[in-house]
Design goal:
Elements lengths: L3 E10 L2 E11 L4 E5 L6 H8 L7 E6 L2 E2 L8 H6 L1 E5 L10 H11 L5 H14 L15 H13 L5 E5 L7 H16 L3 E5 L4 H5 L3 E6 L2 E5 L1
Length: 221
């Protein structure tokens, strides 16, 4: 079973063709790097996978949702099965870590307060941040904020994590810690597609690599 399957997909930003004839698949527990220069289409491809950009040509399926004709009302259900981690964290700065995570659970249909609290504690423990639950984002380092973002991405037990330059603003030591957390997710059954321009990571944490270049996506040997 593939969690991602693209066949001959063209990726557009409005009417501008970014990537053409994209074909690949990703299976459960796979960790895949998506590399390429700034502006090569990495973020556009990720946005296509979580249905922020529509597929105008080709076939795309992500976590059992067909993207080509997905209705707007179904996009939130698709995204509940995907964890998304951004480079710039996108935490709500006016509330605590716990309240950030509770906001996401409320927005995705959770009602039971006890279950909400238990889920928040579980994901924070997974990224070793439980003791920071009542802190504000500004009280955390960049690496700690990124761990919270990974915890947020795990709230709805996704089958797939899409990470867009998640270590781009972090020092090497913190980057290694974040990569270890992400790789552990794969070991527990989650697939990860991680966009990065940090090619040194490929040597330190070897895995499958895809490259955006000259308007194409190629699988590297």
């Amino acid at each position: 079973m593939n969690l991602i399957e693209l066949k001959n997909v063209d990726v557009f930003q409005t009417d501008r063709l970014i990537l053409s004839d994209v074909s690949f698949n990703i299976k459960p527990t796979e960790f895949v790097y998506l590399i390429g220069a700034t502006g090569s289409g990495k973020s556009s491809l990720l946005k296509t996978l979580y249905a922020e950009l529509p597929i105008k040509k080709g076939y795309g399926e992500v976590v059992d949702y067909q993207l080509c004709d997905i209705k707007k009302s179904m996009i939130p259900f698709l995204r509940r099965k995907i964890g998304i981690v951004f480079q710039d964290f996108q935490l709500l700065t006016d509330r605590t870590v716990r309240d950030n995570l509770e906001f996401v659970l409320n927005a995705t249909g959770w009602k039971n307060k006890t279950k909400i609290n238990n889920r928040i504690e579980k994901v924070l423990a997974k990224v070793d941040m439980l003791e920071h639950a009542d802190k504000m984002p500004f009280e955390l380092s960049g690496g700690e904020q990124q761990r919270i973002c990974i915890a947020r991405a795990l709230l709805n037990e996704p089958k797939l994590i899409l990470a867009d330059e998640p270590t781009g603003n972090l020092d090497p030591k913190t980057t290694d810690k974040i990569l270890n957390v992400i790789h552990d997710l794969c070991a527990n059954g989650c697939a990860v597609l991680m966009a990065t321009h940090e090619h040194n990571l490929l040597n330190r944490f070897p895995s499958k690599v895809m490259k955006c270049e000259y308007g194409k996506v190629t699988i590297c040997d």
